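Repro:
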Amino acid sequence: MFRFTKPALIAGTIAALAASASASAAPPTLQDLNPPPPGFYTCKPLGAGTICTGNQDEVKEEELQPELVCGSGADAFNIYDNGHAYSRLTRRYDADGNVVERINHEVWLNAFWSNPLNGKTVPYTQRGTITDRFTVPGDLNSAVETQVGENVYTDPVTHQKVLRSVGRTVFSPDGDLLASSGQQPFIDMFVFGDTSALDDVCAALS
């Protein structure tokens, strides 16, 4: 419940005056940004800081996923990843030129997992947002990472959904899982060691 008090009003007025003073100062130049964004970003002043945006495309063709293994013994095989990832990227810097937030809105097109041994594939759709907020401005190693989105795999023969990941996860700067909600089979696999979520995908690729 929100409570309005005179001390809060005074504090808010002081903060507004401070923000106004900061906004009137010249923003840092692009050379002063820490760390500087890659060259494909376009940057402009925003309030007392700087915002940088850019787009990036990545194409994967039969990229080995060593952590994704189907079967065992002589029948074991690795899953390979294929697809076109389109990313809309944003970085926000504070008045001192230090990065405080990094956002990746990502969509995968023409994407599928494959088994090159027999040519079978399982197509998937994927879209999501990855947000890194830096607990120490300017330090990329201090990111708390939040991921939200959906990733769905469909057997092309039966048209059944064989794997679905949807929801939200939060990771600490050390990579520890802080929070998870929704349906998260990859968390079950890589954090808790339950690989059964891959069973239906492996069956479709076998």
